[in-house]
Amino acid sequence: MAQTETLEVAGRDGSSVELAPGRLTALERSLAGGILRPGAPGWDDAVLIWNGMVAAEPAIVAQPATAADVAAVVGLARDHGALLSVKGGGHNIAGTSIAEGGVTLDMSRMRGVTVDPDERVAHIGAGCLLGDVDRATQRHGLATPLGFFSQVGVAGLTLGGGLGYLSRRFGWTVDNLLEVEMVTADGRTLRASRDEHPDLFWAVRGAGANLGVVTRFTFRLHEVGPMVHGGLVAWPFEQAEEVLETYRELTTEAPRELAAFLILFRAPPAPFVPEEWHGRRICTMAICFTGDLRSTEQALAPLRRLGRPVFNLLRPQSYSELQSSLDATEPKGLHYYWKTEYASQLSDGLLGTMRGLAAECPVPGAEMAFLHLGGAIGDRDWDDGAVGNRDARYAAGAIGIWEPGEPDEDAYVEWIRTAGSRFAPHCTGRSYINFQTADAGGAEIRDSYGPNFSRVAEIKRAYDPENLFRMNRNIAAAAAGGRS
Hints:
The protein is of the alpha+beta class. The protein has helices at 21-30, 43-47, 67-80, 130-138, 154-159, 167-170, 198-207, 240-253, 296-299, 319-324, 348-360, 409-423, 442-449, 453-463, 475-479, and strands at residues 7-10, 16-19, 35-36, 60-62, 84-87, 103-106, 113-116, 121-125, 142-143, 177-183, 189-192, 213-220, 222-223, 227-236, 258-266, 281-289, 311-312, 315-318, 335-343, 367-372, 394-402. The chain is globular, with a radius of gyration of 22 Å.
């Protein structure tokens, strides 16, 4: 990049701004990965995100290696009024990690993981993916609740609250967060915990992307595995009513060591699916049992009454293997659009609605799904962290998936929206902030935090009064009554 070159980027107010060439050159020289421009080696990987439906391209990508690097980029964007985004794993469905025409912080060079097995604590860099952490902690038979796809970024998952197979045992991901190091809008690098900047730490646990750039997370770890029992098992859709009723029984009575997700969809042409079932509707459960493996049969006893499955991949396996077993089902670059809600129970109305939606769904790759929550999530007070939603025992979703260029995309999007409106009356009226799509409005953001929203908005104003960190489910826009 030439010293005299002026770079025009998107501004936060919708206009364009010019970045001072001298400052940009100095920043480029100071960063471990420098600054990438379109076409440079590494550019394609740096801007690739999971949801191809909301793909965007920034003007530049900065690749920091330290908190000081991050502070320098934040300062550049702040001083010039540039639109700034932060990319961890790039897995957010709303595509908030890429600022179209702006400045993107790509955290992929900050992927260090340090585990203290005696203290049961892990220090995790903001560029880590879930698989990075699981591999490091499982060497010691330890884990913390981190999703169920190994390619998801730790930062994005955590800052929205975080959920996974272990949430029934140990709560939301942020319930296990001990401390963060983060760069705030004014360029300070702070440590936040229950004892240090407690207001900031409270808000980080569920609304963190709004408040700054976290550069390091410190998590509490728990004994898990290394061997667990889990995998996929499926039955014909013709048994859907029986499967749903059994699922309700299984999940209502389940020990906290058991998490069971339910997916109603068309069987893919995968090697483990009998060929005669390819493309046919099936009822599938994704199981993770992390208790005493000698108790597996007892924990899964209700499933035996469902008879012979279409396929059965349930077996003892390592926790790390199970955590990555669904990766191939949602590859990067496809188009994803969904609507989700939390539910406090599986009412007859909710089960019947989801069964009906699955039967009539015109989207070939779509899923009607339930995530199994509850357990330890409900052990804490609603206001223990911004995340709230302590009454969430399930998450229900209509999950749309299709190839880029699909001519019926608009119709598919509209069908998924309608599906969401049909099951929503049976739910709590709130949803997981990380599952909200790019077109979600301020009301959905406000509702997600429930009674915690006013405090979240107050802390946002205190730490980011100019709304520098707006590429997210934006609290400032929601407080003003607009879209994020």
